[in-house]
Amino acid sequence: MNKLNIAIVCGGDSSEYEVSMHSAKGIYDAFDKERFNVYIAIVKTGDWHILIDDQTTAAIDKNDFSFQKNGTKTNIDFAYITIHGTPGENGLLQGYLELLHIPYSTCNVLVEALTFDKFTLNNYLRGFGYNLADSVLLRKNGTNQPTADEIISRIGLPCFVKPAADGSSFGVSKVKKAEELQPAIEKAFQQCNEIMVEQFMEGTELAVGCFKTKTMSAVLPATEVVSHNEFFDYDAKYNGQVEEITPARISEPTAREVARLTGELYDLLHCSGIIRVDYIVTKNSDGTDKVNLLEINTTPGMTATSFIPQQMRAAGIRLTDVLSAIVEDRYTPANAHPTR
pTM of whole model > 0.85? Predict the structure, then answer.
């Protein structure tokens, strides 16, 4: 049987371009080269190309996502998407691949668009009874928007100001004083045209990975995130200013509840591939744990030190096996490109 051609699609147009590139390397190293021909595809506005080897690149033909190798056309059979931000985390790339009948690793167009827009997702999931922080949406150059006093009256202080639809950790601020709110709003608008002001929750931050295929599935052990900074910002996430504890130091009942919620959310949203769900565990008035949903990441970081690889190691699961299972779960001759 011929090997499938796998493209690990990375890069993108967000401020986390370099993180995506590191994730691609981690995924490339883990893929089973005995079973698959694996290439790295860098997708960025104005420049789509394939890394054939350390010295050679080839332009991607956007008409069918193919490339030329040694004068011969090479088709891609499966796309493993690891872009953080647009176009790989908001449904744009998935829509393109759907039109070409190329199976891919992530959720579908609708789910990607929904999970990328934090404000819309939060309000959608609130209708199912999940615990989420209250938030206010602001649009750049929008009309009839709440004033700073109205926002603070509703959300309170401290609060977070963050891009509502962006795959990066940039533009996020923790606001402690009223006079800090407007500068934080302006900072977030530099990243995104829609931003949200979100209620602050004091508690233990958790990150939980999950994947489900026909042959293997798991909700991974929770990682406890202890930032050395005010919150889990870019420096904490990528420059080592954080302590990550896997499994998290939480009670067994809370660990079971977090795992249950993660698997439930995966099914409710009809997710695919590997996702990561982030939570804050706060305290109820009676002292019991309350699990609050923060966000859902459908293309989580996959560097050697990222949460998902950490959690897989803790669970005794090989990333190589998971990647193979994801490809086999989504690729069948029936859904392959009609010209293949």
Answer: yes
